[in-house]
Design a protein that fits this description.
Length: 290
């Protein structure tokens, strides 16, 4: 088992993957960033550059830190080449079980036997993904939060077959990135999605029942509970389609009414109102994403 993590492969250069690659590179790791879609890989690298540029302009990142971090990240179009020298592989692909399983079959074949294998899933079962692995003891969840370069939390998820050394290495890796990890058992929605989605769905039911305007429901949490942003605005940022998929999954796994997706959520997704990425959700967003 790798006890020193130097080289990290990040699979997926989207919203989460680019951020994970950035924070790993900033912490001194050499990073290979793999995305099968070349345009997505380019967009991911552009976002990393933009985040670092903004960090420099805010005085939070030094010019040489920016240059060194960029220098440590290598885009790699081949999955096998991205994984072949990795001490840790972090998968940040779309939230589809079959896609993740098929990816990890290939990852296990390509990565060194000592490498740790991690998924950034926000709610899918670690044990169910690990079923395809010959060595599930080296597999765990490392769940980051968006925007990764600003959010302190990492949920380190322990599957029933995750080894102790793997878990310890995952916690140490997250701390090394300057994050504040919590350890969570592999239970549907872990700690963060289970609580966060419950709040979001209740806020949507309140919109359906005309309790208050979306902006005022959000204000209740921002001003009354000191949340940095209300649950409806956050849903717009995460994407209504993403929230719907997680709600359906939690409803199936946990039963009861708590996670049954509200009709308004289904309707808005059918209408293509997915939040910031489509310009409309519970709020209207201009092209600059405001
Ligand atoms: N590099 C370095 N530092 C930066 C930076 C950058 N590119 N951009 C901003 N910062 C710094 C700022 O200087 C500031 O620092 P100080 O606090 O020291 O002043 C800090 O980061 C906050 O920046 P801003 O004041 O500009 O922004 P903000 O106050 O609007 O906070 C935020 C930004 C932290 C993202 C805040 O909007 C927030 O907490 N949003 C909620 C995010 C959230 O809930 N995410 C979870 C989504 S759910 C998820 O991700 C899980 C899932 O699986 C779907």
């Amino acid at each position: 088992m790798a006890n020193r993590i130097e080289r990290v492969a990040v699979l997926g250069a989207g919203v989460m993957g680019h951020g994970i690659a950035q924070v790993a590179a900033m912490a001194g790791h050499r990073v290979t960033l793999h995305d099968p879609d070349a345009a997505a890989a380019d967009r991911g690298l552009a976002r990393i550059r933009a985040n670092l540029d903004k960090g420099v302009s805010l005085g939070k990142v030094r010019e040489e830190e920016r240059a060194e971090a960029l220098d440590r990240i290598s885009p790699e179009p081949s999955l096998a080449a991205a994984c072949e020298r990795a001490d840790l592989v972090v998968e940040a692909a779309p939230e589809r079980m079959e896609m993740k399983r098929s990816l990890f079959r290939d990852v296990e074949a390509a990565a060194p036997p000592s490498a740790l294998l991690a998924t950034n899933t926000s709610s899918l079962s670690i044990d169910a993904i690990a079923e395809v692995l010959a060595e599930p003891e080296r597999f765990l969840g490392l769940h980051f939060f968006n925007p990764v370069h600003l959010m302190a939390l990492v949920e380190v998820v322990r599957g029933s077959r995750t080894g102790e050394a793997t878990l310890d290495a995952g916690v140490a890796f997250a701390r090394g990135l300057g994050k504040d990890p919590i350890v969570v058992r592999d239970a549907p929605g872990f700690a963060s999605s289970r609580l966060g989605v419950a709040l979001g769905l209740e806020a949507m039911r309140m919109v359906e029942e005309d309790v208050a305007e979306p902006a005022d429901i959000d204000k209740a949490m921002v001003l009354g509970y000191r949340h940095p942003m209300g649950p409806l605005r956050l849903t717009d940022l995460v994407g209504l389609d993403v929230r719907l998929a997680i709600a359906e999954y939690l409803h199936e796994k946990l039963g009861g009414e708590r996670y049954r997706p509200p009709a308004i959520l289904r309707r808005m997704v059918e209408e293509g109102k997915l939040g910031r990425k489509t310009g409309e959700g519970f709020y209207r967003w201009d092209k600059g994403g405001r």
